[in-house]
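Whiteboard transcription, Tuesday session. T.W. wrote the structure tokens on the left side:
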């Protein structure tokens, strides 16, 4: 978000999103307007009737009327969406949950948006840069840290590297394993 920008409407603080992605609608399924959803959230129980979700970039509010498991996803039915044709308008749209309704996380766990923008420092307190991106990989996430000159440092999000996160000071203290900072 550019400097001087304010948070979007409904967002609790500047730079914090108002919505969290919960899944992606793939396609209509069957003749009753159900939609096959690929689930992104670690809290799929939030996608149960009569919960509210928001579809697409316009964040169209939908009320869940039914939910059932189907292969690797969920089949969701929504109030007012009861034909394959009416369901088709939501094909390939992301489903969001309101951040205000997001469950709290256990101690030491954070939502991605909370980590972005943290100052990253090494064990000696030397600044390494700002955490600008989180890349999801098969094994573990990778934190992209950009220094003031624009150089990127890629840090695996593992306990051996990430020593602690202090949300009060908006900082992350890390241990650089051999080879991470480009030194031999």
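and on the right, the sequence the group agreed on:
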């Amino acid at each position: 978000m550019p400097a001087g920008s304010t948070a979007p409407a409904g967002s609790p603080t500047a730079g914090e999103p108002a919505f969290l992605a919960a899944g992606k609608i793939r396609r209509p399924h069957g003749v009753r307007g159900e939609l096959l959803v690929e689930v992104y959230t670690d809290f799929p129980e939030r996608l149960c009737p009569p919960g509210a979700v928001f579809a697409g970039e316009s964040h169209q509010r939908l009320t869940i009327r039914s939910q059932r498991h189907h292969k690797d996803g969920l089949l969701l039915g929504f109030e007012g969406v009861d034909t394959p044709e009416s369901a088709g308008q939501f094909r390939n749209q992301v489903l969001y949950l309101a951040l205000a309704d997001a469950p709290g996380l256990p101690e030491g766990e954070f939502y991605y948006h909370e980590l972005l923008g943290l100052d990253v420092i090494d064990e000696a307190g030397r600044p390494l840069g700002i955490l600008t991106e989180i890349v999801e990989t098969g094994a573990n996430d990778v934190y992209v840290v950009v220094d003031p000159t624009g150089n990127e440092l890629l840090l695996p999000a593992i306990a051996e590297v990430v020593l602690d996160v202090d949300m009060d000071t908006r900082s992350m203290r890390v241990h650089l394993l051999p080879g991470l900072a480009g030194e031999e």
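Someone added at the bottom: The domain at 19-101 is CATH 2.40.30.60 (Elongation Factor Tu (Ef-tu); domain 3).
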